[in-house]
Structure formats: structure tokens, C-alpha cells
Specification:
This protein is of the alpha/beta class and 627 residues long. Helix content is 48%, strand content 14%.
């Protein structure tokens, strides 16, 4: 039987044969309409006499409307809602034409050839048979290609419009082996209702549904689902070996329609998200609108996202500066596809080159500078201290000095939580850069603002991309220490807070972002392994490699001696830190930069420790300098 069906489905019926079948359905419908009208008794002689003319008129009108509307050209096995609507419109239109023909015959021969009741019954019967026959063929085709017993049972979380669209997407494609056995929704009003043939259940019944139906996947269809609820669902699914899928935002659907291939597994980034940030767009717009903005490190994770965020506020021009050619080229292509050429300028330049940077400031005259260019990898800077002072300190010094020279209104410095009680060269270099711009701001009209935050999800060098690669390669997943924790924030969230802090800053502040709760890295790795459908120990191993040079077990957002003051934004605090006089620090920082020429790492780090007394090395060769 299956081989016969396979042969049958292998070929499409010729279009003319579909047209003939539709006309046969119309002839049968008219016959049935007469029998229904007269209760399956004898048809009156006067109506029986006109029956041949009735068939001639009806089939002629139906044939003409079918030919014009091309209803017969659709592939029956893929009949959808649009095809059904087209049939509905065409059949009703044909029936209206028959009523018109009836009126014409009445005024010419004073007699209705086809009784009006017959026309109405015929239309209903024709619609029913034509649509149901197509849907029946579609159902048979789907069942033959994808038998019910071979389907994977799934639940859809969310019984709203997104959930209904998701179910229709799974139902319409014969190649998809998923069967929706129900919806999960916490709305009490929807409980027990049937949508698209599937019932709605509360989340409290998910365990029962999974066990009774052998559910293998749960699909989240709600876009506005809170991070807490998403984590609750994810934790339950991961603990019960149920795969979790996500419906992408409608803006990413192809041609406005959702396809099965767009459903994706839930990422760890989705589960680490927090409640959406509420920005004061009026203040940010007043700050950025119609201004020339310079963004250094524009090809990096933070710099590129800052550029995307800034351009939404219609600046006069954004200057995208970076020394890394290929990543900057990628950003240029992205912006070229989305924005007008006069809205941005791409500049290859090194913040450590004073002549190149002076030309940038002289040419574009920026009003606002976002300084995101920096070396940030802790172990690499621990092994190359001279490069950290050249890039993180000298680069910041040159950019900030030129900002003062060319009358920049605001200079927003992107710092790090590793600058707090630094245990490594990288963190110390960023703290020294903070000290310099704070002291410089006291003697200049330019407002210098510092923003501090922790790790950002998916950034270059973040543990998450590394874990993903290790999992894809079959492991092992390497973690430095079983107790190590980190704070995490999404790249867009961090950049939004940078813009907000930069707009509210009056100069001299160090803004500290609320990073939420710290995350244990080993727990993060275990969750990522489960999200990949694998099992720790059986499929993927986790190995501990030991802390890297300069690495902390726990990151701090504020030094012990510091305190904070609230702002109007609940996620942004102002850190109160020790202040320095420009005259006291500028000479020492200049001497530190001059030490680059010696290439003596010990002297360089010793000088950094003198400038930042709280800098105590950890797991590093420079620990001996603290003794």
C-alpha cells in the first residue's frame, strides 16, 4: 500500500484534470442541492424540464470563474488557507452571477430557471466538497509521508498568536516530524480551551503531559517571556531531558512567515538575560542627536555595538576607528547595508599614534568620544606588560589629551570590573587610565566619564564562545577552577547602560553597572552541555586547568574602600573613589610609558604597583614584587 501511495504522490495530476474534477464536483453539488431542496422526493415537472439548462448555465459560469481565478493550478496536497479563501470567493462570485442570470431570465421569459434556494444550497455544498476534498488529500499525503506513529511529540509554551502560528508551521510541512500535543499557558482564561485541535494546559501539568505523551521538545513561542520564567522552563526541561526550542522574533521571519528551519535551540545567552533596560531616550537623544561621535575600538564587541546603538539617535556622523582591518571592514559592510554613507566614516587608526589621532580630531571635530579601544585578555597582558601600558594607558592618554585640545564635550571611557583591586596587569592598566582621565577632567572643560562593568556575553574572548567550540569539538570543556565565578551582561545591555551613563554624567564620575548575580562558571558549562543535548561525563568531560596568571576567583565591582551613590537609573551607581591631582599623576604616568623602551617587565609592573597601591598580583610571577 505504501509503495502504491509513493508512486501516486510522485507525480502531480495535470491541471486540466483538476479543472474537470472541480466541474464534476459542481455538477454533483447541483444534483444534491435539488434533492435537498425537495427532501429527496420527486422534482417538480417545471424544474425537471429546465434541469439541462441549469447544468449548462451553472457549469459554464463555474468553468469561466475557475479559469479566470486559476483555482485549478494549485497543488492540491499543499492546499493552505489562502487556497481555501480563493475557492470561497470564486464559488460565491459564481453563485452571484447565477442569481444575475436568474433575474435576466425572469425578465425575459418571466420564469426563474434555477430556484434561488437551489443556488444557495448549491454554493454551500460546492464549497464544502471542494475545500474538504482538498484538505482530505493533503491530510492523506501528510500521513503517508509522515505517519502519526513516527512523529515526535512536542508542546508549545504560549497559547497566543505566536503559538498558533508555530503550530500551523509544524502542521503544514510534510517533511517535519513534529506533532503538537498541546499548548502550555499560565493564563487561566485559556485553560482547557482547544486551539487548532490542541488543548491548553497550565505549566503545573507539564510533567504529566510529558510522561503521558512521550514529549521530546518544548517550543517557547512567547517573545516577551520574562528571563525568570524562561529560566524556570529551561531548568525543568534540562533536568527532565526535554529539548527546548525558541521561536525567533517576527522581524527575523522570512518574507513575514515563520518556517520550521528558523526554530532554534535556546542559547545560554537567552538564559542569562535580565529584565529589559528602561532607557531615558529623551536625554540620550538630546546628547547624541546631530553630533559628531568618535568611537575607538569600533570593530570590537563593545565598540561595534555602541556604534549600532548610537546611530539610532541620528548623530551628524559616527567615526568608526580601529586598527584591526578585517573586523573593521566587516563593520563597514554591515553599516553600508543598513545606513546612508554620509552617516558614518570608517577610519583605520591606532590610538597610540598621536599624529594619526590628531588628524582624526582635526578632520572630524567630534563632540563626543566613546573610548572602547583596549587590550583586555588578562593572561596575555600578564605576559606582555609593556603592550598593556602602550595600548591601554598611552592610547587612552593620547585620545583624552586630544579631546581636551580639540574641545570635545564628553569623553566616555569604557573600563572594567578588573580595575577594582586589580590582581593583574590588564586590570591595573585600566585603573591607571581611569586615574589619568579623572585627574585631567579637573583641569579641562571636557567632561570625562568612566563606566565599569564585568564580562559581556559573546564578546571576543568570553568563555561562552570558547565553551561552544569545545562542545562542538566533543570536549573537553576546560575551566580554570571549580569555584571561579563571574558577572555577566549582554553586549546590547552593557552598551545601553554606557549610553545612559554617558548622557547623565557631569564629569569625573565612575559609573558602576549593576551586574546582577555572579555566575559559577562550572554551572554555566554544565547548562551549556545540557542545552546541546549532551550529558556531562558520558558525552563531554569537564576538566580543571588551574587559575591563569593574574586571574581572580571572584570579580569585584567596587573596591572595599569605595562606596556608591544611587542615580535615577536603578542599574547605574556612582562609585566614590580616591581622587588624584593631575600634577601628581601625570609625571608618574609619563615615566611609566617611557619604561616601554626598556622592555623590562619587572620595572614596568613595579611602577604600576607604586601608582596603584591596591594592585596585588595573583597567581603571577609578579607576586614577588608585593613581598
Amino acid at each position: 500500500m505504501s509503495s502504491l501511495l509513493s508512486f501516486f504522490w510522485k507525480y502531480n495530476l495535470p491541471r486540466w484534470s483538476i479543472l474537470i474534477i472541480d466541474l464534476i464536483i459542481c455538477a454533483f453539488s447541483l444534483t444534491l442541492a435539488f434533492f435537498l431542496r425537495f427532501n429527496f422526493k420527486s422534482i417538480p415537472p417545471e424544474d425537471l424540464k429546465n434541469l439541462p439548462y441549469d447544468y449548462l448555465i451553472l457549469l459554464s459560469i463555474r468553468a469561466i470563474t475557475f479559469l479566470i481565478s486559476k483555482t485549478y493550478k494549485g497543488v492540491v496536497r499543499y492546499t493552505g488557507s489562502r487556497d481555501s479563501v480563493r475557492i470561497l470567493v470564486v464559488v460565491i462570485l459564481g453563485s452571484v452571477l447565477m442569481v444575475v442570470a436568474n433575474v435576466i431570465t425572469y425578465f425575459t421569459i418571466t420564469y426563474f430557471i434555477i430556484p434561488t434556494a437551489i443556488i444557495i444550497i448549491d454554493a454551500l455544498v460546492t464549497l464544502f466538497i471542494m475545500i474538504c476534498s482538498r484538505l482530505a488529500v493533503k491530510a492523506i499525503y501528510f500521513e503517508s509521508r509522515n505517519p502519526e506513529k513516527s512523529k515526535i511529540n512536542v508542546l508549545i509554551y504560549g497559547a497566543g498568536e505566536g503559538g498558533i502560528i508555530t503550530k500551523r508551521t509544524l502542521d503544514r510541512d510534510a517533511a517535519i516530524k513534529y506533532k503538537v500535543v498541546g499548548f502550555i499557558d499560565d493564563d487561566e482564561k485559556k485553560k482547557g480551551r482547544s486551539l487548532e485541535g490542541a488543548f491548553v494546559y497550565p505549566f503545573s501539568e507539564i510533567e504529566k503531559l510529558v510522561k503521558e505523551n512521550g514529549v521530546e521538545s518544548v517550543i517557547i513561542s512567547i517573545q516577551s517571556l520574562s528571563p525568570a520564567k524562561k529560566n524556570e522552563i529551561a531548568d525543568w526541561c534540562l533536568n527532565n531531558n526535554v529539548r527546548l526550542l525558541n521561536v525567533p522574533p517576527a522581524t527575523k521571519w522570512i518574507n513575514g512567515e515563520l518556517s520550521f528551519n528558523q526554530l532554534r535551540g535556546v542559547n545560554i545567552e537567552d538564559l542569562l538575560e535580565r529584565e529589559p533596560i528602561k532607557l531615558d531616550n529623551d536625554i540620550i537623544n538630546a546628547e547624541l542627536n546631530n553630533k559628531v561621535i568618535l568611537i575607538t575600538g569600533a570593530a570590537g564587541s563593545i565598540g561595534s555595538e555602541l556604534s549600532r546603538q548610537c546611530i539610532k539617535y541620528n548623530p551628524k556622523k559616527i567615526i568608526l576607528l580601529d586598527q584591526s582591518e578585517s573586523p573593521l571592514h566587516d563593520v563597514e559592510l554591515e553599516f553600508g547595508d543598513k545606513f546612508k554613507k554620509d552617516q558614518f566614516e570608517v577610519v583605520i587608526g591606532d590610538t597610540r599614534n598621536v599624529d594619526r589621532m590628531r588628524n582624526v580630531f582635526r578632520t572630524f571635530k567630534p563632540a563626543i568620544v566613546f573610548h572602547a579601544a583596549a587590550y583586555k585578555h588578562v593572561p596575555m597582558m600578564e605576559n606582555n606588560p609593556s603592550e598593556s601600558i602602550l595600548n591601554n594607558i598611552l592610547g587612552t592618554k593620547i585620545t583624552s589629551d586630544l579631546s581636551v585640545e580639540f574641545g570635545v564635550n564628553k569623553f566616555v571611557f569604557v573600563s572594567t570590573d578588573k580595575a577594582v583591586n586589580p590582581t593583574n596587569v590588564m586590570g591595573a592598566s585600566k585603573r591607571i587610565a581611569e586615574i589619568y582621565i579623572q585627574s585631567l577632567g579637573k583641569k579641562s572643560a571636557t567632561k570625562f566619564i568612566t563606566t565599569r562593568f564585568g564580562n559581556v556575553l559573546g564578546s571576543n574572548g568570553s568563555v561562552i564562545p570558547r565553551f561552544k567550540k569545545q562542545i562542538e569539538a566533543g570536549g573537553p570543556v576546560t575551566i580554570t577552577h571549580p569555584e571561579i565565578t563571574r558577572y555577566f551582561m549582554t553586549i546590547p545591555e552593557a552598551c545601553q547602560l554606557v549610553l545612559e551613563a554617558g548622557s547623565m554624567g557631569k564629569g569625573g564620575e565612575i559609573f558602576v553597572f549593576d551586574m546582577g548575580k555572579s555566575v559559577k562558571i562550572v554551572d554555566l558549562a554544565r547548562k551549556m552541555i545540557k542545552l546541546s543535548g549532551l550529558e556531562e561525563g558520558r558525552d563531554i568531560k569537564i576538566t580543571f586547568t588551574g587559575l591563569r596568571p593574574g586571574e581572580k576567583l571572584y570579580e569585584e565591582l567596587l573596591a572595599d574602600a569605595e562606596n556608591t551613590m544611587p542615580t535615577h537609573h536603578s542599574q547605574i551607581l556612582i562609585g566614590k573613589v580616591r581622587e588624584y591631582k593631575y600634577e601628581d599623576v601625570s609625571k608618574v604616568i609619563e615615566e611609566l610609558i617611557q619604561l616601554f623602551d626598556t622592555q623590562d617587565n619587572t620595572k614596568i609592573v613595579q611602577c604600576m604597583k607604586e601608582l596603584v597601591p591596591e594592585f596585588k598580583s595573583n597567581n603571577s610571577v609578579f607576586e614577588r614584587l608585593d613581598n
